[in-house]
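Hi all, posting the design record for the shared folder.

TITLE: backbone redesign
STEP: 1 of 1
STRUCTURE INPUT:
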């Protein structure tokens, strides 16, 4: 790895460098791999990789892959770092333009979801709201948006995908699942569904309205096929069983290398699709949330069950069972306490 000191200074690798420089404003650095791939480190925790012009890009695509937008969701960070180490060691050749992002390095150092404010609510311009003025997470969200915009513009002739990798706070009855941001009239492409299955993600959740998450920004503003991908449970650095993340690691590596999708790709019937029917928001001082703190994602509630109330509104499960995802009462007023979802009867069409 010694040839890459210019990117990572005295640090052993990208992750170590990102942790050691978490709160620094770095001047951009660049390096070229022996195979001609250019790597630019525009700031801490971001690498922009461009294969040599002589390499073809068989899948005609450009990829944005992010992790660590929540600092304590460490397994996907370790997965991306491993892939970077393999690439720098010359174990394989990159064939497509790639923007790799570790979202919130100060929160990664602290081992916390965020420092001041949940960064995954600050995209799609939300970082500019008065309440977030001057907060480092707002500045970082704005910077990441700009880097993604430039990357998308540079590679506008290629199909753009964004995978924002996370792990969940609660246990989950479905360990791995992806969320597809809402964009009016858009359907999930079949090849993206096949990719999710290749990555051992067998559950897809369709959002019902545009949001201010990172994946919502890249899909609404940049026209990317974007997914937030939940890959397991939150654990500190060094405590992840990376064997449980081999699916996403191998599937991403395959895309980075420009190889075709596996010939014996799994039947789409293995993908279970849910849709969001209701977003629970913390409505203020009278808000009562009736879901226990330790309930697992995808726990189902029978019709008529009261999920939350606040004196004015009482939300009950409708005529068919609904399940809860991301229950979290510890959020500021106005923010998401959870999603109520139901299984979709008719496959992929909305
Ligand atoms: O486990 C939890 O409660 C949260 C896990 C997480 O960070 N999920 C993302 C989902 C983003 C999306 O809705 O696309 C988040 O809450 O930001
Ligand atoms: Zn997360």
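Okay, here is what came back for every position:
SEQUENCE:
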């Amino acid at each position: 790895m010694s040839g890459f000191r210019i990117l990572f200074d005295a640090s052993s690798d990208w992750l170590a460098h990102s942790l050691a420089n978490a709160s620094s404003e770095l001047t951009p650095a660049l390096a070229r791999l022996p195979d001609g791939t250019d790597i630019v480190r525009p700031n801490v925790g971001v690498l922009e990789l461009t294969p040599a012009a002589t390499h073809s890009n068989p899948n005609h695509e450009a990829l944005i892959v992010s992790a660590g937008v929540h600092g304590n969701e460490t397994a996907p960070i370790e997965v991306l770092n491993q892939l970077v180490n393999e690439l720098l060691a010359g174990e394989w050749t990159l064939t497509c333009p790639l923007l790799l992002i570790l979202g919130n390095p100060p929160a990664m150092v602290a081992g916390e979801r965020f420092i001041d404010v949940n960064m995954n609510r600050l995209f799609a311009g939300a970082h500019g709201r008065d309440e977030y003025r001057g907060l480092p997470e707002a500045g970082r969200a704005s910077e990441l948006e700009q880097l993604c915009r430039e990357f998308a513009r540079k590679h506008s002739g290629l199909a753009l995908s964004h995978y924002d990798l996370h792990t969940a706070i609660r246990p989950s009855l479905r360990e791995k699942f992806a969320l597809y941001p809402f964009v009016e009239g858009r359907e999930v492409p079949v090849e993206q569904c096949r990719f999710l299955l290749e990555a051992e993600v067998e559950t897809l959740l369709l959002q019902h309205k545009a949001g201010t998450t990172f994946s919502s920004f890249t899909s609404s503003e940049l026209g990317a096929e974007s997914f937030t991908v939940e890959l397991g449970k939150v654990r500190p650095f060094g405590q992840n069983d990376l064997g449980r993340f081999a699916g996403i690691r191998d599937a991403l590596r395959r895309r980075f290398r420009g190889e075709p999708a596996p010939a014996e790709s799994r039947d789409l019937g293995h993908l279970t699709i849910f849709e969001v029917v209701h977003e629970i928001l913390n409505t203020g001082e009278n808000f009562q949330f009736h879901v226990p703190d330790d309930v697992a994602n995808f726990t189902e509630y029978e019709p008529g069950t009261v999920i939350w109330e606040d004196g004015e509104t009482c939300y009950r499960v409708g005529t068919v069972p609904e399940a809860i995802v991301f229950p979290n009462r510890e959020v500021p007023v106005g923010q998401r306490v959870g999603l109520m979802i139901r299984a979709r009867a008719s496959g992929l069409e909305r």
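COMMENT: The chain has two domains: 2-269, 277-343.
Let me know if anyone wants the other runs.
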